[in-house]
Specification:
- By secondary structure, the protein is α/β, with parallel strands linked by helices.
- Helix content is 44%, strand content 16%.
- The chain has 15 helices and 13 strands.
- Helix 4 runs parallel beside helix 12 and helix 13 runs parallel beside helix 15.
- The structure holds pyridoxal-5'-phosphate.
- The site of pyridoxal-5'-phosphate has 13 residues, from helix 5.
């Protein structure tokens, strides 16, 4: 015990010395555009609750109703204790949203990724991964034991050059985020589809941040680019714009049947709880019925980008609610985040290893439920904090 604590404390000290020590803040209010963090009221500018659904009364009611009807827990793996009808209904609705034949729900997006990739590829296979892919895709690739090759971010020429010996391998998978989680840019999905066609590879798009946000129906990046039917493995999460918890994969009936038989994180884990499934169905209803939430989200993101630029911050163009303010050194990002928090704005500082060394940043994310007043107040805080860093 003593030696364990000793070893770990020494390592923590090292992490602290590099300015990379992290802790989770205590939040004392419901998920929303404003919150109370350790006693301080703040505007939340770091949430993935893009559409403002996590605190929507319809989701809260649906969660309570589902628990009342189906119980608090799912009681086992679906292969042993069965699929609650509620979860199957959710999967059918997810398949419809994604223009796919079928969908399979996992307990998180992370679980989906680490369950799907090793089920699809293994020894003797090849997997290509974008350099800025989310950790769950990286871990899924590692777990698969396939040969993993990383291509420079969104660089099709580089990806193609890594496929010259494609024939040496049995299967080939290309895995990419749809919307990159720390930069907010979109993957070149059409070009990746073409590359996969040409090279006899399968494309897996993790659309954690596009689902509910992009496309006319909120179906995500595939709809945004009009590529329905061309991405065989569409992964997503229920925990971001949909405001709940859980991950999913949508694709052909064969893909889903295969994953149900082969995906270890699906097979050896208890199914999502009824409350979560109920809330997710309510969220899908709102995504379909209230497209104005997406319009408001886009308008809020545009307003914030414009306002930050007017204040002299460098902000890249983008069409997602994710706005990175790259600061550089980890300490500088933390200092800026602290200054903003003192001014009532809560934005997470993102440091290595989540982002590459030297690109520590504030990851600003805006919500459909931020009011004009919220955004003006936030911009005023950015104006005053900026004087501290320049
Ligand atoms: C958040 C995220 C995930 C993980 O989803 P969870 O449901 O939170 O486990 C997967 N992929 C990407 C790109 C993400 O941003």
């Amino acid at each position: 015990m003593d030696t364990l604590d000793h070893a770990l404390a020494a390592e923590l000290e090292e992490i602290r010395a590099r300015g990379l020590y992290r802790r989770a803040r205590r939040v004392e209010s419901m998920a929303g555009p404003r919150a109370v963090v350790e006693g301080r009221p703040v505007i939340v500018l770091g949430s993935n609750n893009y559409l403002g659904l996590a605190d929507h009364p319809a989701l809260v009611r649906a969660a309570a109703a589902a628990a009342a009807e189906w119980g608090a827990g799912a009681t086992g793996s679906r292969l042993t204790t069965g699929s609650q009808a509620l979860v199957e209904d959710l999967e059918n609705e997810l398949a419809l949203l994604k223009s796919a034949e079928a969908a399979l729900v996992f307990t998180s997006g992370y679980q989906a990724a680490v369950g799907v990739i090793p089920a699809l590829v293994g020894r003797g296979d090849l997997v290509l991964s974008d350099a800025l892919n989310h950790a769950c895709l990286i871990d899924g690739c590692r777990l698969s034991r396939a040969e993993v090759r990383v291509y420079r971010h969104a660089d099709l020429d580089h990806a193609r050059s890594l496929l010259t010996d494609r024939r040496r391998f049995r299967r080939c998978l290309i895995a990419t985020d749809g919307v990159f989680s720390m930069d907010g840019d979109l993957a070149p999905v059409r070009a990746l589809c073409d590359l996969c066609d040409e090279m006899d590879a399968w494309l897996m798009v993790d659309d954690a941040h596009g689902t509910g946000v992009l496309g006319r129906r909120g179906a995500g990046v595939v709809e945004r680019f009009g590529l329905q039917g061309r991405v065989p493995v569409q992964m997503g999460t229920l925990s971001k714009a949909l405001g709940c918890q859980g991950g999913f994969v949508a694709g052909s009936r064969v893909l889903v049947d295969y994953l149900l038989n082969r995906s270890r994180s699906f097979i050896f884990s208890t199914a999502p709880s009824p409350a979560v499934a109920g809330a997710a169905r309510a969220a899908l209803g709102l995504v379909a019925q209230e497209p104005e939430r997406r319009d408001r989200l886009a308008a809020n993101a545009a307003r914030l980008r414009r306002g930050l630029r007017e204040l002299g911050w460098e902000v890249a163009d983008g069409e997602t609610p994710i706005i990175p303010l790259v600061v550089g050194p980890a300490e500088a990002a933390v200092r800026l985040a602290r200054a903003l928090e003192e001014r009532g704005v809560w934005v997470p500082a993102i440091r290595p290893p989540t982002v590459p060394v030297g690109t520590a940043r504030l990851r600003i994310s805006v919500m459909a439920t931020h009011t004009d007043a919220d955004l003006e107040e936030a911009l005023a805080a950015f104006a005053s904090a900026r004087e501290l860093v320049v």
